[in-house]
Amino acid sequence: MTSESTAPRVESPCIKVCVLDRQHVCIGCGRTLEEIAAWSRASLDEQRAIRTAAAERLVNAKVF
Fold it and tell me: What distances in angstroms separate CA 26 from CA 1, 2, 9, one per listed residue?
């Protein structure tokens, strides 16, 4: 059995384009400011959920 501390981590969606829009969502990775701050403490399941939500935000983003 693999403990969570030795299990592989979920790769961060950060692409080093750290700019927040008016809704406090990063235009590079799609995460909210709260999700960015919580990433290192989040469980694997939470990280997966954050990545999914961030990807959906980027797909639905309106770029002007």
Answer: 36, 33, 21
